[in-house]
Amino acid sequence: MSNSAAAAILTTADLSEAIRAVRTLLSWADADQAEVDFEGVIRSRDTLTRVRQVLPDLKWRAEAGEQHGSSGAGDDPAGCLPVQIFDWNRPSACAEPFIEALGPDSAAAVRWDLDAWRPVPEAGLDEISQKYAYLTLSLYSRDLYQEEPSGDHTVHVHVRDRDGDHTDRVHWLAGQVGGRFTGRVQVAPL
After folding, report:
1. Closest CA to 129 of 87, 169, 184
2. Of the candidates 142, 147, 151, 146, which has an alpha carbon nearest to the alpha carbon of residue 104?
3. Backbone dihedral region of 22: left (phi > 0), alpha (psi from -120 to 50 degrees) or beta?
4. What span, in angstroms and rounded, lies between the C-alpha atoms of 72 and 95?
5. N or C: which end of the chain has fewer CB within 10 A?
6. How many CA atoms lie within 13 A of 66 on its CB side?
7. What's the pTM value of the predicted model, to 2 decimals?
8. What string of DSSP letters covers 132-158?
9. Under 8 Å CB-to-CB from 161, ≥6 apart: which residues?
10. For 8-57, what is each residue's pLDDT tens digit?
11. Which helix (H) or strand (E) holds 45?
């Protein structure tokens, strides 16, 4: 299994600003075949209902442990709240409806698996292959794994590793969305 380093480039309490940043970043990616992955924690019936309208066959398990309920066992998630959700390889068109379905009682991460980061010759940036081309929006959390709940949202761009590969790309992408790279990086298994 390989890893990437997810660099935080923008944190904002304004969800619409976070979504605009993601859209801008996607415009610098080859995302024709992009898929999205969802992970998170849902704590309320209302949010669960909205999320299941977007993802009716949502994969989930009780936060207290799978023995307390799961989609694999055919349990009703509303009776097992809070639940952890994990759903991968969805069409990118599912991302924004999922984001809109969440509420501040939730925490989630949406990761776009991109085809590539496009080259930017005028900035001296080569293409970055699919293996290292990811974008994550952490919602109501500052980290990738919902361990730091917050009232804001953080945009992360993934780079090769902690050793500085592609750091120029991170700074450049941050500048495109009015953010900045502060050095905060989390390792993400791919």
Report:
1. 169
2. 151
3. alpha
4. 23
5. N
6. 7
7. 0.94
8. G-EEEEEESBSSTTS-SB-SSEEEEEE
9. 3, 4, 5
10. 999 999 999 999 999 999 999 999 999 999 999 999 999 999 999 999 99
11. helix 45-54
